Amino acid sequence: MLKLRQIHHIAIIASDYEVSKKFYCDVLGFELQSEVYRDARDSWMANLAINGHYQIELFSFPSPPARTSRPEACGLRHLAFSVDDIEASVAFLTTAGVECEPVRVDEHTGKKFTFFSDPDDLPLELYEID
Hints:
Strand content: 35-45%
CATH architecture of the largest domain: Roll
Number of strands: 8
CATH superfamily of the largest domain: 2,3-Dihydroxybiphenyl 1,2-Dioxygenase, domain 1
Protein name: VOC family protein
Strand order of the largest sheet: 1-4-3-2
Pfam families: Glyoxalase (PF00903)
Domain VOC: 6-129
Distance between the termini: 32 Å
Helix content: 10-25%
Structural class: alpha/beta
Organism: Rouxiella sp. WC2420
Keywords: Metal-binding
């Protein structure tokens, strides 16, 4: 059996790199660990971290093709983040101009969750943990 240790990172290609970098860093609170321009690809790449742990590679590429992400398209369905207080998190996002779906309760775990989108309409989830 393959012995995976953990998810290393998630790669996201942004249609507007600066807008997405600002969203992930200034709104969601990721820390910009490093950033490099790759001249041969005309592409920026940023490494973003939560609590010091590298999680997201954010890319820019010239004219990336659009990808259908909803409803229920094949592929990555959404990216979920755990939070301690979902109501406070939703209030913060709303104040930052981010629209969230109504908070729901997971019928299997009893935990609260909601969805919202990044600047490219990538579906993101907040999931309350104890």
